[in-house]
Amino acid sequence: MKLGLTTSFFGDAHPRVPIERIRRAEELGYDSVWTAETYGCDAMTPLAWIGAQTKRIRLGTGIAQLSARTPANLAMCAQTIDAMVGEGRMIVGIGVSGPQIVEGWYGQPWGKPNYRLRDYVAIMKKILKREGPVTHEGREISLPYPKDAPGSSGLGKPLKSILHGNPDIPILLGTGTPTNIRMTAEIADGWVSGNKWVPGREAYYRPIIEEGLKKRTDGKTWKDFTIYGSVGIHINHDVKAAMAALKPMIALYVGGMGAKQMNFHKDNMVNRGFGEAADRIQELFLAKRKDEAISAVPDEFVDQGALIGPPERIRERWKLWADSGLTHIKIANANDEAMELMARIAL
Fold first, then answer.
1. Any long-range contacts for 8-17 (C-beta under 8 Å, 24+ apart)?
2. In this structure, what DSSP letter does residue 175 have?
3. Tell me: the pLDDT tens digits for 289-315?
4. b vs e for 197-212, b when ≥16 Cβ sit within 10 Å of the residue's Cβ?
5. How far apart are CA 164 and CA 128, in angstroms?
6. What is the C-alpha to C-alpha distance for residues 212 and 31, in angstroms, rounded to an integer?
7. Burial track 219-238 (b if 16+ CB lie within 10 A, e otherwise)
8. CATH class of 2-236+310-346
9. 313 in Cβ contact with 285 (< 8 Å)
């Protein structure tokens, strides 16, 4: 089991990279550090900053939003950072975000994310491998831009990356529906499961992933496929208080992060068996009754997806995560104490 450290700029007016904590994580043996992307702060720039001030720890996007860049641009960013900080450190995690952000922030149609993800990954892999000028005729993305497409000059030509970058930069997908998870196992190098894969849920996801792996054309099998989970850490001898500390963020995501009719965080709560609570949280949150929405988050849901309480409880419950089938776990919401504790327990 390998550990990663998640950094977050959510809610910050100015990005603050906890570089000393990241350096300490590297000393402790953490495998990777991850940055998120919001409508304001990108995921790539902080990784270049972190990479310049560390030596070994791998650099992951968790996640880079699909609509923020063309596949060529994300490939350029990834291989440039990888070349500058030491080849083999970059990990690209990609996700679609949601329609409110795709259409409201990036000004692009929501369209068919499954087709777009397929095209995106295929183009990125062709760019990184440099086996020839890149061409791709996709359902959603084509390269070069088609001569008969709206606004085309007709002068586009296939090109090959000038930079001889690392052809083996891992490309992971952060997906949530069975269809897209199955596709992830078919075309990507790994899955960023977020808080979907928790102890006890492996029996649900494993068959879906196996179905996708059977469709691969590159010979990769289960042993080659990485699965990144995420677990929040909150050390507190009062378990109830620890649960309470994590509920506001859960209520925010389940209740208000996305449109009422399309909220992937709510869908995840429903999928984990808490459908009635998810409906109630969203109802209360959208009615601006946020305190009630927070109180409606079930203790069991919090405890299922986090490691909370005193160190001895966290140590005991970690065994469930270690045996769950995940290959990597990203530690979320970790202060210095939690980061050190997890290194002693898991590394």
1. 8/36, 8/332, 8/333, 9/35, 9/36, 9/38, 9/40, 9/41, 9/46, 10/36, 10/38, 12/41, 15/41, 15/46, 17/46, 17/49, 17/50
2. -
3. 999 999 999 999 999 999 999 999 999
4. bbbebbeebeebbeeb
5. 8
6. 26
7. eeeeeebbbbbbbbbbbeee
8. alpha beta
9. no
- Structure-token match 């050390």, residue found: 235
Interval 95-112 mean pLDDT: 93
Number of residues that this document lists for the chain: 347
| Tokens representing residue 36 in the block | 């998120």
Determine contact, residues 195/293, Cβ cutoff 8 Å: no
pLDDT in tens, 204-233: 999 999 999 999 999 999 999 999 999 999
pLDDT in tens, 185-209: 999 999 999 889 999 999 999 999 9
- Between helix 202-213 and helix 178-187 the angle, nearest 10°, is 50
pLDDT of residue 257: 85
Phi-psi category of residue 221: left, alpha or beta, with phi > 0 → left and psi -120 to 50 → alpha = beta
Residue-averaged pLDDT of the chain:
95
Tally: H helices and E strands in the chain: 14, 10
Residues near 265 by Cβ (< 8 Å), separated by ≥ 6? 253, 254, 257, 258
Tell me the domain boundaries of the chain: 2-236+310-346, 238-307
From CA 281, how far away is CA 292, in angstroms rounded? 8
DSSP string, 308-340: EESHHHHHHHHHHHHTSS-SEEEEES--HHHHH
Residues forming beta bridges with residue 143, ordered by sequence position: 136
Beta strands 306-309 and 2-6: pairing type? Answer: unpaired
